[in-house]
Amino acid sequence: MPLAGSLDIRPLVDGAPEVVLSDRELKVDDVDILQVLYEVRVADREALVPPALNPTIPPVISFLVYRAKESVFGPFALAQLRLTARSGVRPRAYLISARCDNPELAGVLAGSWGFRVTPGDISLRRFHDRVDCSVHADGRTILQVSLVDPVPVTGHDVQYPPGMHLARVTRDGVLKPRIVQVDSEYVFRRADRGRPELTRFDPADWGDGRLVPDIPVSASFAACDMTIANVRYICNPDVPAAEGTEKVSDE
Amino acid sequence: MEFGLFMELSVPRPWTADSERQVYENALEQVRLADELGFDYVWAVEHHFLEEYSHCSGPDVFLAACAAQTSRIRVGHGVIPCVPQYQSPIRVAERAAVLDIISGGRLELGTGRSATWPELSGFNADPDETKKTWDEFVRVIPKMWMQERFSWDGRMFSMPERAILPKPLQKPHPPMWVAVTSPGTEVDAADRGLGCLGLSPGGFADSEKKVLNYRNRIEVCDPVGAFVNDKVLTVNFLSCNEDGDLGRRNGLKVASMFSYMAAQLLSAKEVLPTHSYPSEGLLPALRRESGSPGDAARSFKGVTMGTPDDVADAITAWENVGFDGINFIHQFMEVIPQQYVLDSMRLFAEEVMPRFKTGTGTGTGTAADRRPVAAGVA
Fold it and tell me: Is the minimum CB–CB distance between A214 and chain B shorter than 8 Å?
């Protein structure tokens, strides 16, 4: 039968952002996006995601980094660690944690979309032969990841599955754990792909020490206009998505 | 219209020492019955590492068992990955020829290139290369079969002059096909004179466009083999029962499970930005990229489920689109009892198949009627 998640979310709920559902969306033009993927080797892949989700075969982590020179909250960079997953038959990415260098935006991302985000200094630099990203937090470097030897592809070739963020949402007057589906739209201006290179990463720094990278998969770098849409669906994390999904907006 | 069984040989957890044997035994029982009932084909996939979804990594061995236990049904590779890290084209030509001999000239050779990340990365294959290597495979295999001695100096592989043995029983060689999932592969099939082995159920309009495009192009093709195989087959889910609700319920169990299991596999396209895989392979037709995470697998128009009349209506619709036949996924992950599967096949053969084999539909005969002649075989 399809593998189903078995992650015990109780230890994670207290630190989960409290989301106020609204029709808020966030448009940002000219965003640079680096995505680097690695397979992870774990014995119990079901235990990586909550019961609302299904693990993929094999599990793959992605480092997804946004950098924008302008936004309504000013310039920002956001680095996410995500894990490929499925909700039923749909491709999704379960957010482990994120770092952001813009405190105001970080608050909005947490409060509107459930980003589990803490402060960090993020550098994302594009060269002709490589793209380098590093994340610094708590006085040390917690991520160094690169794309090497970029070659052009089309935006159509690059995929960023919708995020699934563990949060707390008020339902029937009570704050309850919910997975918030975060849909984003991308209009690509340029895209490259290349070889992934990971030189510094401890998964414990990002919230799940089991996610040890094993086999490099791919790296891409794109420039695009991005819209994070308002939340349309939330899920009860404790039951399969087919049973526990609630539509909260028609838009 | 022609009809076939499409075998994934999926094995649900929990796995016991007997799980795989039981799945294979059930499949062989279905094939023996299909042979008695007049089904035209049994196709076996070749997949590697796809836990539960398919434990069919040695399809030639399975198809040899099918051939040994049957007398007339044609045995098809659906499909062999034409990726050199999986296997050399020499080995494909050799093993296929053995199977053609063992089966008495009943082999159909489906070709493809894999679409999942676990398989491609498991063999350390380069997804960017698979379209190119497939092309070289399909050009050399018929030559290996037909030439007494063969040599090659190509992009993918080279070999000195050698006799590749044995030669297939069917002359000039067995029919060749290509799996069509990615957009545009029907054009590749047509241009090379290969049969179109559809593996993704699509909508009527989209399918009609593809079939028409294929028909137009194959008229002027330059075949890779000694003859043109101009057939177009599609795939569907079969569940036929006098109780239409039960038929649909069981059919949807198979379709839903198929969709869920396929969805858990990482497609090459999903994790690697590449032009080489414009779609995600077998299942994207049943998967939507955005929308509710709670939605079940989406059904599609023209599913061959329900009463015999329901099934016949759906087949007529696909026949009108232009397909020459349908291969059925009739069981998956053993979600419906073996006895139901066998009864469904029997009812289909009694009530539906004759409408498409005797002129009630517009079908024009069986696969065996239109195959190359096997030397020494009537």
Answer: no
Residue B208 belongs to some domain of the structure: yes
- What is the residue range of B351's domain? 2-370
Are A186 and A18 a contacting pair, CB within 8 Å?
no
The single-letter code of the amino acid at A95 is L
Contact A157 B292 (CB under 8 A): no
Low-confidence ranges of chain A (pLDDT < 50): none
B272 has a chain A CB within 8 A of its CB: yes
Of A155, A146, A116, A113, nearest to A218 by C-alpha is A146
Cα(B253)–Cα(B334) distance, integer angstroms: 10
Structurally, chain B folds into a number of domains equal to: 1
Strands A90-100 and A117-119: parallel
Cβ neighbourhood burial of A224 (10 Å; 0-12, 13-18, 19+):
buried
B376 assigned to some structural domain: no
pTM of the model: 0.91
- Which CATH code for domain A28-162+187-227? 2.40.400.10
Domain spans in chain A, listed from the N-terminal domain onward: 28-162+187-227
CA of B185: how far to CAs of B75, B181, B191, B320, B324, in Å? 23, 7, 10, 21, 18
- Kindly tell me if the per-residue pLDDT of B297 is higher than 70: no
Distance between A193 CA and the closest CA of chain B, angstroms: 7
- Which residues in chain B are contacts of A183 at CB distance < 8 A? 290
* B203-245 tens-digit pLDDT: 888 899 999 999 999 999 999 999 999 999 999 999 999 999 9
Beta bridge partners of B19: none
- Taking CB atoms within 8 Å and a gap of at least 24, the contacts of B163-167 are B164/B90, B164/B93, B164/B94, B164/B97, B165/B94, B165/B97, B166/B94, B166/B97, B166/B98, B166/B101, B167/B97
Neighbouring CB atoms inside 10 A of B105's CB total: 21
